[in-house]
Amino acid sequence: QKEVEQDPGPLSVPEGAIVSLNCTYSNSAFQYFMWYRQYSRKGPELLMYTYSSGNKEDGRFTAQVDKSSKYISLFIRDSQPSDSATYLCAVYGGATNKLIFGTGTLLAVQP
Amino acid sequence: GAVVSQHPSRVICKSGTSVKIECRSLDFQATTMFWYRQFPKQSLMLMATSNEGSKATYEQGVEKDKFLINHASLTLSTLTVTSAHPEDSSFYICSARDLGRGLSEQYFGPGTRLTVT
Question: Whole-angstrom Cα distance, residue B55 to residue B53?
Answer without folding.
Answer: 7
